Amino acid sequence: MTTEKTTAEAGTDGGIEVRPVAGHIGAEITGVDLAAGPDAAQVAAIRAAVLRWKVVFFRGQRLDHAGHVAFARRFGEPVVPPRRGKASPPDVPEIETTADRLELGGRFGMPHDEWLRRRRHTLHRGWHCDHGARVDPPAATILRAETVPPYGGDTTWANLAAAYAGLSAPLRAFVDGLRAEHRLGVGYQPRPGEDAYVRHLLDHQVATVHPLVRVHPETGERVLFVNGYYVEQIAGLSRPESQAILDLLLDQVTRPEYTVRFRWEPGSVAFWDNRATVHLAPSDNAHLDHPRTMHRVMLAGEVPVGVDGTPSEALLGSEPGRW
Ligand SMILES: [Fe+2]
Q1: For the residues of 60-124, what is the DSSP string, one character each?
Q2: Is 7 within a domain?
């Protein structure tokens, strides 16, 4: 997120209320109509809450696509993804819509269940930050629910700064200096013979070496920059060493005390710091056969920097600021 100058006086919050919902992460914000365009004091208070609580939730909002993008623009520069799901609105290029998760497997010529099975190489697999294999992952994501199932389909987030702080001092010192390769498609088990998803991965490779501990550009916090989705290997360690350490770190990140879980309703909005969290998309609603339509806007992010000041290094498929 860029730092916007506001005219807010210290201590004013524009009348909004920020109510934390879990010990380490997550706050619900009330008293603001996002469609009406929050004033500068409200924007400042929301920004502070996102940085403090890592993910904030709004309920009962009535944003349309243009309003969603306009709200996002108060906090940074929305990215324009080059490839979007086919349900995305053609006239609003910043919005990505997921309407039918079942379309994904079909796109690659296999039943959706099989595609998921081939992608799920570990229990940590679903935890990710958005576009984490890029050299400049988005700073934040603003996700809005249009249609949700009557039950199931919750999203869960974890606080990577709290997870880092919760490690023992010797382990923090050990991971502080490490870097890891992040890559799209890690651990995918190819289908025998022709596999269109393998072709897709080869045609759209994205890989970056990121610091394992990232210094947050706005809060200065150290963030355990790992996830189960993109991290291939810790540099300099043997493969078994890397796997054991990654398992330990992902167990740490996903401990329940560092997480918050959100029950979506139509009109709910979640706004998270994509640099300080990972999230878990739901896997308990596919069998319910109920539509779940979500709209996403992401804000452009910085190239991460490690504890020693070394930035991430792009290996393939992404350049800072270019989508
Ligand atoms: Fe995501």
Answers
A1: S----HHHHHHHHHTTS-B---SS--TTS-TT-TT-EEE--THHHHHHTTS-HHHHHHHH--STT
A2: no
